[in-house]
Design brief:
This protein is α+β, with helices and mostly antiparallel strands and 391 residues long. 49% of the residues lie in helices and 15% in strands. The protein folds into 3 domains: 7-120, Acyl-CoA dehydrogenase/oxidase, N-terminal domain (Butyryl-Coa Dehydrogenase, subunit A, domain 1); 126-234, Butyryl-CoA Dehydrogenase, subunit A, domain 2 (Beta Barrel); 237-386, Butyryl-CoA Dehydrogenase, subunit A, domain 3 (Up-down Bundle). The strands form 3 sheets. A 4-stranded antiparallel sheet has the order 2-3-7-6, with no helix packed on it. Strands 1-4-5 form a 3-stranded mixed sheet, covered by helices on one side. The protein is globular and about 80 Å long.
Length: 391
């Protein structure tokens, strides 16, 4: 039996949905967005002021600093995702949502006041500096390959290295930097911009919903006070695990909302458009695609809610979030692809948001670990479990 959603989650979700549909969706045609659809920071903060006024800013974190449960968060974040701009507007976007979660769980009181508070208030953006360039055999899907180093020098740590695909680095005010010391992986909170962190390149990518893009960054003798280490030296991978499953799952939540919206648009198109003497919806090839969308949307929602319920028990949910990330990202890709197909030529233009949603969801199959890496990890678990049964 599925767990019943609380009244507070239903109310928050309804308010977020109303705000996104009425106030934010019109921004999808705002001329300040670039040709890829990426919003400028000025546009982001303008939308956030409207969210603040509407009482829906950072809706998953309550006034007393406590979080909604993961199951409640799933409902609210799906509503925020009804537009690619929705998470930006109500402050449920990546990487900020995951970074807020991590600082809230690991950071000291001083760190929360200095670094977390402006993020929760929607007055700052953040970046998570972990991934490294592939050509240097640095950390990607395998964080243990991390090359970025940190060494203690007096009461400061000195960090050197290069990072790649750092979402939102350009324009961020708060950074979480991962580096490797003799003790093991470490995390540091830093103020941005910093002259020792230089953006080398921001590539054009298939997705476009995240301000600042996905930058390649050079870290050159960055000096960080010792009291800005998040947690203790050598525990960085442990802290990454605390962030990993909830952040992985929240991607599923947001993009589920986007695909629900794409399905609405494609369904409206199929019911209005006529071809070969009848509405498109009445052609079996079209009607069946939309029917399959309903099935995939519901299955994806159930996977998200199942994983959220596991996390709410206090489990890290590593296996469950891997399974959910694979199932949901693949299902959402099918949905977005069918929506484009149903709409034909219109589906590949910017006449609707469907084209952008297709691009975003394609990138999602790589975010937080490609499908194949998760399947490989799950296969290793199957082997471990089998060995355990062999005595």
């Amino acid at each position: 039996m599925a767990e019943k959603l609380s009244d507070r989650a239903l109310e928050i979700g309804a308010n977020v949905e109303r705000f996104v549909r009425d106030i934010i969706i019109p921004y999808e045609k705002d001329p300040r967005r670039d040709h890829h659809g990426a919003p400028l920071d000025a546009l982001v903060y303008e939308m956030r002021e409207k969210a603040r006024a509407a009482g829906v800013l950072t809706p998953h974190i309550l006034a007393d600093g406590s979080h909604l449960t993961q199951l409640e968060t799933a409902y609210v974040l799906r509503k925020s995702g009804l537009s690619p701009l929705g998470p930006l507007a109500v402050n449920t976007m990546a990487p900020d949502e995951g970074n807020m979660y991590l600082i809230g769980h690991v950071g000291s009181a001083e760190m929360k006041e200095r670094f977390l508070k402006p993020l929760v208030e929607g007055r700052a953006r953040s970046a998570f500096f972990m991934t490294e360039p592939a050509g240097e055999n640095g950390a990607g899907s395998d964080p243990s390959m991390m090359k970025t180093s940190c060494k203690l020098d007096g009461n400061h740590w000195v960090i050197n290295g290069r990072k790649a695909f750092i979402t939102g680095a350009e324009g961020a005010s708060v950074g979480i930097v991962m580096a490797k010391a003799d003790e093991g992986a470490c995390m540091f909170l830093v103020d941005l911009p910093d002259p020792a962190i230089r953006i080398e390149h921001v590539p054009n990518t298939i997705d476009s919903s995240m301000p600042g893009g996905h930058a390649t960054v050079i870290i050159d003798n960055l000096r960080v006070p010792a009291d800005q280490m998040l947690g203790v030296a050598g525990e960085g991978f442990k802290y990454a695990q605390i962030r990993l499953s909830p952040a992985r799952l929240s991607h599923c939540m947001r993009w589920h909302g986007c695909c629900e919206r794409a399905h609405e648009i494609a369904s409206d198109y199929a019911n209005r458009r006529e071809a070969f003497g009848k509405q498109l919806i009445d052609h079996e090839g079209v009607g069946f695609m939309l029917a399959e969308n309903l099935i995939d949307l519901k299955q994806a929602q159930l996977m998200i809610d199942w994983c959220a319920s596991v996390l709410d028990t206090g489990s890290l949910g590593t296996v469950e979030s891997s399974m959910t990330k694979v199932a949901v990202s693949e299902a959402l890709m099918r949905i977005a692809d069918r929506c484009v197909q149903v709409m034909g030529g219109t589906g590949v233009t910017d006449a609707t948001i469907v084209e952008q949603i297709f691009r975003e969801v394609r990138a999602f199959r790589i975010y937080d670990g490609p499908t194949e890496v998760h399947k490989w990890s799950l296969a290793k678990k199957i082997k471990r479990d089998w060995k355990a049964t062999q005595g």
